[in-house]
Amino acid sequence: MGQEIINFAHRGASAYCPENTMAAFVKSIELGATGIETDVQVTKDGHLVLIHDETFDRTAGASGWVKDYLLEEIRNLDAGSGFHSDFRGERVPTLEELLQFVKECNIVVNLELKNSIVLYPGIEEKVIAAVRSFDLTAQTIISSFNHYSLALCKQLAPEIKTGILYMEGLYEPWNYARTIGADALHAEHHAVLPEFTADASKHGLVYHPFTVNDPEEMKRLIKAGVAGIITDYPDRLHEVLEAEGSSRK
């Protein structure tokens, strides 16, 4: 994945476009993102779709659970006009659509498995199979708040990096991460300090904190030694990285 700090666009350029849509993913690259973070769930008929919430109410104007909809039904939903009328008709994309885009752009993709509230049996195998089918194992990170799922992913695909999502207060997370074979710490940004990144590095782990939208906090984290930052504003992070000269080449 190179030595540069990865500019992960959180759900795409979600400050400017409806989150987790192809419009947001395309815009993020235009704004300087070098990675995309998104959320993966499973339809009733077993397809992988990109949406954060377990229901459609907030982002796609429909009631009910993702797990109870067929892909054809989901593709008829409007995932754009709730954000702004300019995006009317934007659809909930499939994972395969994003992976094709990632392959064309040669960027990093961080796939968060949304399997804490709804467990989605078999989501790990499905995601891994999709990533392998596009030959993107070296450019992919799988993350989740469900660490049992991450442990399974590492067993199924040791070649794909995994990142444990967590909030503040996890004691010596680099030691914990080793128990499930994780490669990265996807911590809430307040839980990242220079001494933590140094200790993690000694154990072969890197930090990719979320969700960082303030330029001053971005600067603090860069100085702290993070390997990537997840942000709604990839343009802000791009400007900070350019100004800081923070490439690790």
UniProtKB/TrEMBL annotation:
The keyword Nucleus is annotated on this UniProt entry: no
GO MF terms held by the record: glycerophosphodiester phosphodiesterase activity
Record flagged with keyword Hydrolase: yes
Entries under InterPro entries matching the protein: GP_PDE_dom, PLC-like_Pdiesterase_TIM-brl
One protein family per Pfam: GDPD
Keyword annotations: Hydrolase
EC number(s) given by UniProt: 3.1.4.46
Enzyme class, broadest EC rank: hydrolase
Gene3D superfamilies xrefs: Phosphatidylinositol (PI) phosphodiesterase
Domain GP-PDE: 5-241
Full protein name: Glycerophosphoryl diester phosphodiesterase
